[in-house]
Amino acid sequence: MRGTWLSTDKDADLQALLDRYGVSDVLLESEFREMEKGWAKTFSEMKALCFDTTFGFTATSDSEWRSFLEHDTVFQLSLNREPGRSILYGLDHVRCRQSFFNQMPVFLRIAVFKEKIAAIDLEPGFLSLDSRCSLNQLIDVCDIGMGHSIYECDFGHRKIVVKHRPYDVQCAYMRLMAVMGWATFDHYFYQNDAGGWEFSESLGRQNCNDFLLSGQFSDHIESALARKAAIGDVLGIGDRHFENYMIQGDDILSVDVSILFWPDNELWSESYISAGLYEITCLRHYCDELPQLKRKWQLFFEHYSYYVEVLSSARDRLSAELDQIFNKTESKRCSAFLEERLSGVDAYVSQQKQLYLNGFVTCLERLLYKERLAMLYARDCALFETRPLYKMMVLADRGRLSAFLHGEKRTGFFDELTLFLSEHDPTFSQDLEAVRAQGLKIREAVSQLESVG
Q1: pTM of the prediction?
Q2: Contact at 8 Å (CB) between 190 and 196?
Q3: CATH number corresponding to 121-202
Q4: Whether the predicted pLDDT of 130 surpasses 70
Q5: Is 425 left (phi over 0), alpha (psi -120 to 50) or beta?
Q6: Dihedral angle at the C-alpha atoms of 127, 131, 135, 137, nearest 10 degrees?
């Protein structure tokens, strides 16, 4: 039986692969056959999770995986999403994509990775971050990326993450955090003919999404999220979803910062809050106990307001650092961005409170849509074969705190989804009215806090 990814004689291709990576004497043929079966299973699973070309999200093909293995300069294996169509992926897609690389034996992962590092000349990046991290010290490597490959490299004494990044926004962000005296982590940006590359210390695998979904509650984490919200709003940081927040004890560190001082970033913030992805939505767990939600809401914005004030008092130091990070034109724009938000702290905080409340109430409604759509998919997934958008949404939100990211940008989406769920779920309409009534009570309770304040 021919292998799913081999194009000629199986044994000849096997021997060529083993010789290529210098593991002929290490990898048993039986091990390879088992690995090949694993790849075939992953191809099948991914095909079931993805869509046709007209939808814009197709499964990884055997030729794409073969190309990754055969070409040393192909550093990333990416999900096949058509740009510009707001195609969302889920954790199931991520696990499949990662497993192509991760299910290989460790010595083969290392061999493939080393060939790519050598071809792209990335070892200087490792050594610049830590002179002890030469490739001959590498003991393991895994793909931990989401939509595309990002590698966590284990050198025994520490783990380093390497990813392709066209711009060094993360470094700019951490320089501003250092000005404030707030926590950062080891990071180095390396530029060569193949592009930009970010090297950083590994922060582990526990992100805020997993922490909050596990049912853990922590005043420290909630206050840390309030600080992150203040920082994110004042510095115009986008894409602050919970998977980009890594738990470090009682603190949170931001990874994958790719957007700073984004014009009209507040509009994006409301969209992400509505989808359950930004900091304030950690309070969703308290919605059934209105007095507790009021107390938590008040505490969140006490912390938020405090940190906006702290940032405001540091405007001169932040602007001076911006002069060192960016060219004159960009530095001037970023300083003006700061000034626009910090020249009137009370007014800005008040504006953000209303924006957060609007998004939070919308999020509660979407969580009901998410729950019922997922239940319907579990009960009758065949119903979704002619509704690929609904299938995409179910898969994108499964195992996540998210709920229909950017759904409001799809014309008529929620009106059509309401009709669909009402047709297939006899209690949906009544439950939706109950959630909307709950939202009105939350608005009233928060307004009382403001009037007292």
Answers
A1: 0.92
A2: yes
A3: 3.30.200.20
A4: yes
A5: beta
A6: -160
% the chain with pLDDT above 70: 94
CB 440 within 8 A of CB 358: no
- What is the 8-class DSSP label of residue 207? B
**Burial class of residue 250 in the structure, from the number of CB atoms within 10 Å of its CB (0-12 exposed, 13-18 middle, 19+ buried):** exposed
Q: Do the beta carbons of residue 172 and residue 100 sit within 8 Å? A: no
376: helix, strand or coil:
helix
Residue 453 has pLDDT above 60, yes or no: no
Q: Kindly tell me if the per-residue pLDDT of 2 is higher than 60.
A: no
Residues 340, 233: contact at Cβ < 8 Å?
A: no
- Given this model, what pLDDT does residue 32 score? 77
At 250 the pLDDT is 84
Using DSSP, state whether 254 is helix, strand or coil: strand
Q: Do 7 and 14 form a contact (C-beta atoms < 8 A)?
A: no
77 C-beta neighbours (distance < 10 Å), count: 19
For 363, what's the count of Cα atoms within 13 Å in the CB-facing half-sphere?
28
Nearest CA to 405 out of 275, 295, 218 is that of 275
Alpha carbon distance 417, 373 (integer Å): 9
CB 72 within 8 A of CB 115: yes
154: β partners: 140, 159
What are the tens digits of pLDDT across the range 218-235? 889 999 999 999 999 999
- Whole-angstrom distance, CA of residue 70 vs CA of residue 452: 66
pLDDT digits (tens, 9 = 90+) for 100-121: 999 999 999 999 999 999 999 9
Element (H, E) at 145: none
Mind listing the pLDDT tens digit for each residue in 235-267? 999 999 999 999 998 889 999 999 999 999 999
What does 86-122 look like in DSSP terms, one character per residue? -----HHHHHHHHHHHHTS-HHHHHHHHHHHHHHHT-
- State the sign of the Cα–Cα–Cα–Cα dihedral 270, 271, 276, 278: negative
What tokens does 63 get?
């030729």
**Does residue 393 sit in helix, strand or coil?**
helix
Which single residue is written with the structure tokens 């590498």? Answer: 138
Q: What is the pLDDT of residues 25-80, one digit of tens each?
A: 666 677 777 888 999 999 999 999 999 999 999 999 988 998 999 899 999 999 99
Domain boundaries, the chain: 1-91, 121-202, 206-453
**How many Å apart are CA 338 and CA 236, to the nearest integer?**
9
Amino acid found at 293: L
Contact partners, residue 122, CB within 8 Å, separation at least 6: 116, 162, 190, 192, 194, 197
